[in-house]
Every structure is written in C-alpha cells, then in structure tokens.
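User: For my dataset I need records formatted as: sequence, then structure tokens, nothing else. Please produce one.
Assistant:
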Amino acid sequence: MKKYISSLLLLLSLSSGYAYAGPIYSFDQPGNAFTNGSWDFALNFQVLNEVTVTGLGYYADPASGAVDDNAVALYDSNRNLLASVVVDNSYDVFDFFRYVTIDALVLAPGFYQVVGVSRGDNYTWDNINHVFDPNIAYVSNSWASDFDGIANFVSGTKSDTQFGFSGPNVFIGDSTAFTGANRVPAPGSVVLLGIGLLLVGARRFI
C-alpha cells in the first residue's frame, strides 16, 4: 500500500509542474466581420509574470476559416523585433486563429507589441467574452494602413475597453496544444489517467 501511495504523490507533484498553454487572449465568439483594405493591426500588452512564447497567429474569420499569408511580428517596447512568421492556410485553426510555431521565446515582465497584416481579410471587434490570460494585461491597440505587407511596429495607441480589433495573437506554453497533427493528450490528462490506474490497483490492498 505504501508503494502505491508514494507513486501517487509522485504523480501529483509532477502534475503541478506543467504550465498553462494557450493564447494571450481569447473569446467565445467574434463580434463582427468586416474589412476595408489592408491594415497593420497591433496589440500592445504587458507581461506581468514571465511567459514562454511558442507561437504567433492570425485571426481566421470562421465564415471561411481562411487566412491570406498574413505577416505577424512580435516586438519589445524598444521596437526590437523578437520573432516573426507568415500565417497561411496550412496551419490548423485553434479558437479562431491559425498559429505558426516559433523557437521558444521567454518574455520577461515588461511591455510588448504583436502586430499582424490583415491583407484585406475580415477582422473582428467587440468580441463576446473577450478575456486575457492572467499573466497578461491589455494596454491598448494601434493600427495603420498597410503598404508593404510587412508587420511593422505601429506607433500611436488607442485604449479600448473592448480590446479593439482582433488580428494577431500570441501563444504561450506547450505548442502541441495547437499543432493539430502533432497534438498529444494534455499533460494533466495523462497524470489523471495514471492516478486513476494507481487508485484501482491500490484498492486491491485495502
């Protein structure tokens, strides 16, 4: 019996070490669908606690699920480029966004901007139940007309209680959560399965 209890405690301790995996913001349903040309849409946000970025993504209007080779880039507050991708339709849709994996990038507490080029694709705003990850604080939105298809840093900001226009997004934590073909059971699920098996075995000795 002691053997099973020790194994159970080990699994519980391992389960507590897994970090959250998900986008820096999410919503239940998009609020609008509209386009009026190509724009650089930027989200200015603050990292409250250190996070690890594993993907950059762009909004895919659920009417079609399509994107259009949208450039997305992540900058620090000094306008240094930290990572960039081009999002196309070969990437899986995860909660209204298609994400591209990047080499794991640790963001220390501070201010950042993620910007994406709309390329005339539909964008959304006033989304339903739009929330940010607890490690992230919304600061403002920025936007500018796009002339070159490059996700350039966008100056100027507009605060918006509805979080403004949704285009680019940032994924933090385990990238297997959004990589579709490479998707694996969540670590917590694996641990719970193991705990269940241990408890079944332990009952034989009670």
